[in-house]
Specification:
By secondary structure, this protein is an alpha+beta fold. 40% of the residues lie in helices and 14% in strands.
């Protein structure tokens, strides 16, 4: 079972249940309870675990096949070619317009009717790639590239 294999990985790596639950912003005891009682772990949580621990082999975690850890060749694969975008450079200082999406009634009008859309304010995030603006999304700020 996936939760049992996760428990084996955490034990081998010396990672406490408290540490993984904090790193995942999961409820206190949620991972430990799943591991100890053999309960299912949701797909979103599994995806976050695999992102958090890149050395954990997803095939082994999900099926039990193969080795628990990814080999160094996979983690250090030099054959993967990265193709940077024009916006893949950080700007030390830029003023990012912050828009009110509710007042605009959608993302498309925000950019097509630019004369009617005056930013609420401007924000600055150091060393952020060049971006067009930011909007609030359910209480958080979303940066638009």
């Amino acid at each position: 079972m996936v939760s049992e294999r996760l428990g084996i990985y955490l034990e081998k790596k010396g990672i406490s249940f408290y540490a993984i639950e904090n790193a995942l912003n999961a409820g206190r005891g949620s991972i430990s309870k799943a591991v100890k009682e053999g309960k299912n772990i949701g797909s979103n949580t599994l995806e976050n675990i695999l992102n958090l621990y890149p050395d954990l082999n997803p095939t082994w975690l999900l099926t039990g096949e193969g080795s628990m850890l990814r080999d160094d060749d996979f983690l250090m694969d030099k054959s993967v070619q990265a193709y940077p975008l024009k916006s893949d450079y950080s700007m030390h200082h830029q003023q990012i317009p912050l828009y009110d999406l509710e007042a605009t009634a959608g993302l498309i009008p925000l950019f097509t009717e630019s004369a009617n859309n005056i930013p609420l304010d401007y924000i600055t995030i150091p060393n952020l790639p060049k971006c067009d603006g930011a909007i609030y999304v359910t209480g958080i700020v979303c940066i638009l590239y």
